[in-house]
Structures are given as structure tokens and as C-alpha cells.
Specification:
There is one protein chain. By secondary structure, this protein is of the alpha/beta class. The strands form 2 sheets. The chain has an 8-stranded mixed beta sheet with strand order 2-3-6-7-8-9-10-11. It has a 3-stranded mixed beta sheet with strand order 1-5-4. About 45% of the residues are buried. Helix content is about 40%, strand content about 15%. The chain folds into 2 domains: about 1-125, no CATH class; about 150-295, pyruvate-formate lyase- activating enzyme (Alpha-Beta Horseshoe). Helix 4 runs parallel beside helix 6 (about 105-115), helix 10 packs across helix 13 (about 260-280) and helix 11 packs antiparallel against helix 12. It is globular and about 50 Å long. The protein has helices at about 15-20, 45, 50-55, 70-80, 100-105, 105-115, 135-140, 160-165, 170-185, 205-215, 235-245, 245-255, 260-280; strands at about 1-5, 10-15, 25-30, 30-35, 65-70, 90, 120-125, 145-150, 190-195, 220-225, 285-290. The chain contains 13 helices and 11 strands.
Length: about 300
């Protein structure tokens, strides 16, 4: 993994899209490309025109590198003081504040400390890295203002498959362990089951296990999302799964590259998730993240 350090310009920004999804009113991002290297990631489609890619002469869709800004916490501290209309900040929306390159500069902890030093701000932490537990002492001191979530993309028995498509993220087992630790310490938790990939984590049994786990960890909300079909992510996942001999999973991912099949996959995912949540919790905790314009009639 090649790491590029580039100076960005934003600290805390308004995010109307995430506000509409009931995720957050504001966002903090510590870079443009995350070192977890998840093959399905749709972030490159959102940031592909950024000048940094031209400066480092790399395609936003290429693999094997990350772009991080070590100075982000200073801008976050500035904005946390300056912004008067405060709300809920998601840390992060594009990258991961506890990814390997972010950990080098302790960006997650430093951004979190800068935000929480100012009253009235709340934070939704989202990460695929178990290193977030290093921030639990800080979070515990502000437990009413912080929601902790580790993105779970499958159950533990699918770990070998997930390691192929999320090569530098923490294992599913480690993420689950950190969620258990957060709940045991009395921290506020939420579940992010995102994305639930076809042929890997979209079966009724997988969904049932994940929803039950979320409820057991006292998740205040359960967010679920299908894989985003934009960009080359589905193709990259399919090719990697084929390379490692997971032909059935590769075929399932390959099928949803067609809009009709993607629509069927999403409709069935919605139905299965709703049934499972109703069995284990109040349906009002479910937040299904979906742009319906991508569906067929």
C-alpha cells in the first residue's frame, strides 16, 4: 500500500445527503482514499475529479494506494469552535479515520477529541477497524454524545471471503468483539450492515444472525445497504473472488452487474431485512439506505 499525504481544505462540512438518510448533519473526512482497500468501495466515483489524483498521477479507481491528510484534526478543531449551528457529525463518510494510514497519525482519536471539546456536537463513529477501541476511554467520558458502529459486511463464518474483498480491514471476528466491548462498557451503539453482498451475506440466515447480533449489542439503529453498483467495484469483487476459487460467490456478484438482477437482489434484501428486524426489534430502528432511482420499474 502506497501512502500519499495531501493537504485538503475541509474540516467539518454540512452533508444534506446524509441528513436525508438520518445518518448525520455534518461530516468529517481524513482523506480521499482509504487504506482498507475494499474492492466494492464507491468513494472513487464521488471524488474522482479531485486535483490530488492528477497531482500524484494515479487513477481514482486504481488499487494499492491511500490518500490521507495528517492536518485534518487542526481544521476540525477550528470548525468545531467556529460553527454555531451544531448537530451530529459522521466520522467518516468517504474514508475511515481508523484505517492503517490514519492510525499512523491518530486521526480518529484526534478528530474525535477536537469535536468533543466543544459542547453540543454529537458524533457517529463508523469504521471497519478494531483499533477504534483505543478511543473508548475518551468516548466513555462523553458517552451521551457518541454513537459507535463497526461496519459488518457478513457473519464470522464468511471471514475468508470477506478478507479477499476487504483486504486491509479488521477481521469480522475482531469487529464483532469490539462491538461487544462497546456495549459491555455502556457505550451507545448502532449497527451498520453495509454492504450485504449477493451470494455472501444476503441470505435469510446471514441477515438473521447479523440482526440478532445488532440487537444483542443494544443497537439504537440498524442501517442496511445493498452494494452500490456504480464504478468498477462489482467487477473487481467478481474477479478477486474468481481468482481465489470462490466461483459461486463470484457468479452471484457478477449477476447483479445487470440492472434487472440488481433490482431483484435489492427487493429481496429489503424483504428479508424487514422480516428479521420485526422478529427481533421494533421496525422503527431499521434504516435501509437506497437510491430507488437505480431500480427497474
Amino acid at each position: 500500500m502506497t501512502i500519499y499525504e495531501r493537504q485538503l481544505t475541509t474540516g467539518i462540512t454540512r452533508t444534506k445527503g446524509f441528513e436525508h438518510k438520518k445518518l448525520a448533519t455534518h461530516a468529517v473526512n481524513v482523506g480521499l482514499r482509504c487504506g482498507h482497500g475494499c474492492l466494492y468501495c464507491s468513494t472513487p466515483t464521488l471524488v474522482r475529479t479531485h486535483r490530488s489524483f492528477r497531482e500524484i498521477h494515479r487513477s481514482p479507481f486504481a488499487q494499492g494506494y491511500a490518500i490521507v491528510d495528517p492536518d485534518t484534526p487542526n481544521r476540525v478543531a477550528r470548525d468545531a469552535k467556529r460553527i454555531r449551528r451544531r448537530g451530529l457529525i459522521q466520522l467518516c463518510t468517504l474514508t475511515d479515520a481508523w484505517s492503517p494510514e490514519a492510525q499512523t497519525h491518530q486521526l480518529g482519536q484526534r478528530c474525535l477529541k477536537a469535536i468533543l471539546s466543544e459542547r453540543e456536537w454529537q458524533v457517529r463513529v463508523l469504521t471497519k477497524n478494531a483499533a477504534v477501541h483505543d478511543a473508548f476511554d475518551l468516548i466513555q467520558r462523553h458517552r451521551d454524545r457518541v454513537l459507535v458502529g463497526l461496519s459488518l459486511t457478513a457473519t464470522a463464518d464468511k471471514s475468508r471471503v470477506i478478507e479477499i474483498i476487504e483486504p486491509h480491514a479488521s477481521s469480522i471476528q475482531d469487529r464483532m468483539s469490539v462491538m461487544v466491548e462497546a456495549a459491555a462498557r455502556g457505550l451507545r451503539t448502532y449497527a451498520m450492515l453495509c454492504p450485504l453482498l449477493p451470494g455472501i451475506s444476503d441470505s435469510s440466515d446471514q441477515i438473521e444472525q447479523l440482526v440478532r447480533f445488532a440487537v444483542e449489542q443494544h443497537a439504537e439503529e440498524i442501517f442496511v445497504e445493498p452494494v452500490n453498483p456504480r464504478g468498477p467495484g462489482l467487477r473487481l469483487c467478481q474477479e478477486a473472488l474468481q481468482l481465489w476459487g470462490y466461483d459461486a460467490e463470484a457468479d452471484a456478484v457478477g449477476r447483479v452487474r445487470k440492472q434487472v438482477e440488481w433490482s431483484h437482489y435489492v427487493a429481496e434484501l429489503v424483504a428479508n431485512v424487514q422480516r428479521s428486524v420485526r422478529r427481533h426489534a421494533d421496525i422503527s430502528v431499521l434504516r435501509f439506505l437506497l437510491y430507488p432511482s437505480g431500480l427497474t420499474t
